[in-house]
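Hi there. Long-time user, first ticket. I'm pasting a complex I've been working with (about 492 residues overall). I'd like to know whether the download I got is complete or cut off, because the file seemed smaller than I expected. Thanks.
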Amino acid sequence: MLAKTDLKMRYQGSWLGIIWIFLKPLSIFLVLNFVFSHLFFKDNPNYSIRLLLGLILWFFFSETTTVGMNSLISKANILKKIFIPKWIIIISATVHSALAFFFNLIILFLFLFAYHIYPDMIDISLFLLYIILIYGISLAFSFFAAPLYVRLRDVNQIWEVLLNVLFYASPIIYPISAVPPDVQSILYVNPMTLLIEHSKVVLIDSAVPRFDHLLIFIAIFIPIFFASIWYLKKSSKNLIENM
Amino acid sequence: MINNDIAIKVEHVSKSFRIPQQRRNSIRERILSFSKKMSYETFNALEDVSFEIKKGEFFSIIGRNGSGKSTLLKILAGIYTPDQGSITINGEISPFLELGVGFNPELSGKDNIYLNGTLLGLTKKEIDKKYHQIVEFSELERFINLKVKNYSSGMHVRLAFSVAIHANKEILLMDEVLAVGDANFQVKCYQVFEDLIKAGKTIIFVSHDQSSVEKYSNRVLYLESGKPAFIGGPNEALSQYLGPDFIKE
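Hi, the file is complete. Here it is re-exported in full:
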C-alpha cells in the first residue's frame, strides 16, 4: 500500500508517467554509448548492448540502495505516530526501483533481439539469480544504512560519492578484460563487478561464468544479509526517538 | 502471566531522553569533536509507571503539558521502547495518536481512506467493506474524489476522524482525538464514541478536556512530571490535578 502511494505520487499528473522510468537510463546510455563506442571501443562489436546491460543493472543497484537508505527518514512523520515494522518501510520503498528495473529489462531484451542475441533458458535463469543477488545486496545495504542515516545525517552524501566511485569501479563502460589482471582482482572487491560481469557473460556471450566465483560470492553474501537483518532489528530500538 | 481480563499491564516503566547540549548527528561533527566529551542533559519523561487496564475499561491519562502522557501512549503503541520495565498487551491496538496519519495532500479522499486505513491496521478487504460507511459518516460523498489538498480543514479532520473511528480494534489509544468538525459533526462524534464504549472496547484516552474525562472514565491516571501521582476515580484525580478548588458541576 505504501509502495502504491509512492508510485501514484511519483507519476500522477505527469502524462509522461512511465516514460520517465525509461528516460533516465536511456539518455545516459545514449551519451556514454556515443562517447565510448566511437572513441575507445570501436572494434568491440557488442559494446553497446554490454553497456546497456551494465547500466541497467547499475541503476537498479544505485536506485534501490539510495531509496532504501532514505526510506526511514522520509517516512519519519508516519513512523513517529504509528508502529510499523521498519523492514516494511524499507522494502516498500524499493518496490518502485524494482518496477523501474523491470521495465528497463523489457528494453534490454528488445535490444538483445535487435542484436540477434537469443539467450536460452539456462542463461536467463542464471541472469535471474544475479538480479536476485543485486536486489539482495541492495536490501542488505539498506538495512544497514537506513537506521544509520537516522543517526548520522551525512551518510547519504558519503554514499553518493561512493556510488560514483563504484560506478567506475564496475565493468560498465569498459570490459573487465581491458584492465590488467592485478587491477581486476581489486575490482572484484566491488560486489557489482562480479554480478555485472557474470550477467554479461551469460546473457550476451551465452557462456558459462566461473561458478567458483559465484559460490564464494554467495557464501559471503548470505552471512552479510543475515547480519543486516540483525542490525536492523537491533537498531530499531530507540530509532524513532532519534528522528 | 497475564490475567485474561487485563488488556494492558504496565510494570515499572521508565523512559528518559538524552538531550545533547550540542547535536552531533553527522560523521563530520563526530570527527571534529572527537576529543571533546559528549555532554547530555537527561530528561526523565517517565519514571516507574505501573498500572493495569482491564478489558472494556475507559482509562484516562491526565497531566500538564510535558508530564509524559504522550510518551506513555507512544510506548503503549510500540513506537518508543521503554528504558526499563515491561509492557504486556492483550489484544490488538489501534493507535489514534494523531488524526490523518500519512494523509497525502496530493491524493484523492478515496485514496487517502485506503492509505490511512492500511496504516491503522486494516486490510484492503476490510476497507472495501467499510468504505461506504466511512464516506457516509464523513459526509464527504461529493468531494471524495477531490484531492485532499483542496479540502477545507474541517473536511480534512472529518475524513480523518471517519477513517480512524472505523478502524477500531480492541484497544484504542486516543490522544486528544475526540470531537472534531462543526457542532453537528461533534454530536455525531460523541455518539460513536459512546457506541464504542458500549461495544466494550478498551479505551485509553489522553485529554485536557475535563468534562469528557469526568463523564466517561472508569479510572484516571494523573501524571505529574513523569511520575504517577494518582490512579483512581475521575473525580479524585481531577481534583488532585486541578487543585482543591475543583468543584464538581
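A couple of notes from our side: Chain A has one domain: 2-242. Residues 2-242 of chain A form one domain.
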